[in-house]
TrEMBL record:
Family classification: In the N-terminal section; belongs to the glycosyltransferase 8 family. In the C-terminal section; belongs to the glycosyltransferase 49 family.
Biased composition (Basic and acidic residues): 27-37
Protein name: LARG1 glucuronyltransferase
Biological source species: Alectura lathami (Australian brush turkey)
Biased composition (Polar residues): 12-26
Amino acid sequence: SFSDGKPVSLSPLESQPHSPRYTASSQRDRESLEVRMREVEEENRVLRKQLSLAQGRGPSHHRGNHSKTYSMEEGTGDSESLRAGIVAGNSSECGQQPAVEKCETIHVAIVCAGYNASRDVVTLVKSVLFHRRNPLHFHLIADAIAKQILATLFQTWMVPAVRIDFYDADELKSEVSWIPNKHYSGIYGLMKLVLTKTLPSNLERVIVLDTDITFATDIAELWAVFHKFKGQQVLGLVENQSDWYLGNLWKNHRPWPALGRGYNTGVILLLLDKLRKMKWEQMWRLTAERELMSMLSTSLADQDIFNAVIKQNPFLVYQLPCFWNVQLSDHTRSEQCYRDVSDLKVIHWNSPKKLRVKNKHVEFFRNLYLTFLEYDGNLLRRELFGCPSEADVNSENLQKQLSELDEDDLCYEFRRERFTVHRTHLYFLHYEYEPASDNTDVTLVAQLSMDRLQMLEAICKHWEGPISLALYLSDAEAQQFLRYAQGSEVLMSRHNVGYHIVYKEGQFYPVNLLRNVAMKHISTPYMFLSDIDFLPMYGLYEYLRKSVIQLDLANTKKALIVPAFETLRYRLSFPKSKAELLSMLDMGTLFTFRYHVWTKGHAPTNFAKWRTATTPYRVEWEADFEPYVVVRKDCPEYDRRFVGFGWNKVAHIMELDAQEYEFTVLPNAYMIHMPHAPSFDITKFRSNKQYRICLKTLKEEFQQDMSRHYGFAALKYLTAENNS
């Protein structure tokens, strides 16, 4: 249980022990980190208990023991509290800080745009969810890309007591586009300025976070700081920990005006209701217009404008203790913000170098960040006991479907998988696609797991068109994939490949769910339904685009068959033409696909006819037929009941036939299956009798469903099955 305050073991710390990255030394570091994380969790638990006791005893017990002090200021609520010496670290003065109500919702706003920022947000959210004990409401100011990615992610993550609202960042561009900005965050780096207008008018307060933030404590502690605001204080900020605003970093360095060292806007507490009454919108606009007359542009986006406003109106700021924003850019004073791991609350990777930044303790910080980066997000789907969650239709439907299953059924796990909601992160890497003007474009669709990663470069070399891939990975494997892709010149040079991560859950490989995810997110009118172990012939992409026109695929229900072959050789001189392929077939270097183990799967393609064919020819459906086909994007999905090995493609081809698709073999197209070790699922199929029994049961149920759906025409499938 996460909710009872007990220490939690971080499973990713123990993953991949044999990987080169996990040397004995770094493994010890990670184990040490886990121990320290446990200590922090335990300390937090004790402090929460002390807090409730202190609240119960009333004002006479407000003064705690001040065990730690810092040279940097630690909150400027008033001078008296400074004289009292507010405690730092996780021992911050319990009595003076009012507790956050048990089920009080904490509001968090984040500006997020693009593919990379969407990945960063996930790590930030994981760190917040890991420590939180309150309901959360995330307000995401997102562009169209980030909204598509994060809406799907949160919808499939299904974390209790978390609400997500999106605000269109593109609609806000006109509010800030008049401000020239040199910062790498671009126009989106200015959007925190307009949150008073953007967020709901009845929202009184919000914590605003950059995407490159990692939490090391419960965000409720930061939310509680709002109670310390006094007078006209409406902004909670940490002092900037670099010398930027002092103007002495280089000759002729001329920063925007700021109060002393200035403030960093990676973590902001905003009292929205008071800011609106103060006419914040008018205040920052007038200041920006005035300063831009001499400064010409911002260097640090919204931070420059916030600081210029504060310079004129210092009473607006409540200065947060610096451990609420430990800034890990080069040449900062961040090391003065902490003495021990228990002092850390928020880490801010506010350097373009991110994890490669220079800091004495950067290795520790990096390990903390990697812990959340690779942490299994499924473990964060925990209920907040005692806090009623808002009714979620998807969650309720899922529970209803699962409750209707018989847990004593020997095939229960197979049936359950059909309803499992897998957390899905679309477009994990940058994606760009320019639609073809002639409307003939074809996307190659495939799915894979970590053990087939090596096929990606070869496929990209054989197929220059768009590709949509669903990858079945754990959180840690997703990061390994990211490093692999970023280290590959071939993959990094291709922007028309959509990588969609479906996170691991359950004991089966959800092959048809993966195919459906990859199919659903194509940007072309046609798709080539392939498998990751196949290399398409050179030039297949252009050949298929011509075939689409020739065979009028736009106006007819056709499935164009690309004949499949295989080699048993790991090193293959790939045939450059059909003539060369036929020669290799005659020599025994190549074979028709699965001819020696599953002839029925591709026999209807009629390879004998294909050898001499010069024009496309039609073939009829037969039992167990499972060719690789090109279809329109509106073709039916794969049936999710089939998982792992067996009948996953056969059922789909049967459905195409039931919907009266014509199967047409392309005479000058081919694909070749490359050898690999047997998958875990085929091994289970061969060795587990119950697996085979359940697959047979699912086949029969699928055929019955076909009969009910397609009526008399579907009877041939039952007959064909009985005769085969």
